[in-house]
Amino acid sequence: GDRSPGMRRLLARQREQREKNTAGRLADTLHAGLRRRLLAVAEDLRDRGPAHRVPGETDVLSAALLVRNQDIDAVGAVLSEAQAGEPALRIRFLGPWPPYSFAEARPQRPTEPAVG
Q1: Would you write out the chain's pLDDT as a tens digit for each of its 116 residues?
Q2: CA nearest 95: which of 62, 61, 70, 72?
């Protein structure tokens, strides 16, 4: 309280940077564990771009999963366990959606006439 306004602003910025760094390290740890556990129950996982988030939140994982119908509940269980282990984690589980992002589109080459 007895510090100058400039010093208070500097200390506030330093605190914010420490909090951001700590959140980033936690997000990295959560990302690795969550990705590994999801791949154990999914056929494939494709990372997506950053999700829409509230300012001040840190992205952990935004992904599309290719999952067999019978394994959808297992995905939900993994996400529920992650939520229980880290209550600040915000999870959005959308779908099922058609597996378009997992199809490999290869350009068709025109067929050449046989020479002969």
Answers
A1: 688 888 888 888 988 888 887 777 777 778 788 889 999 999 998 887 766 667 777 777 888 889 998 998 999 999 999 989 888 888 887 777 777 767 776 666 666 666 65
A2: 72
Could you give the 3-state DSSP secondary structure of residue 114?
coil
Cα-based distances in Å from 89 to 29, 83, 92: 13, 6, 10
CA atoms within 13 A on the CB side of 85: 11
Q: Please state the pTM of the whole predicted model.
A: 0.64
Per-residue DSSP letters for 55-112? TT------EEEE--GGGHHHHHHHHHHHHHH-TT-----------GGG----PPPPPP
Q: Widest CA span of the chain, in angstroms?
A: 94
Spell out the long-range contacts of 59-63 with Cβ–Cβ below 8 A and sequence spacing 24 or more. Answer: 59/27, 60/27, 60/30, 60/31, 60/34, 60/89, 61/30, 61/31, 61/34, 61/35, 63/35, 63/38
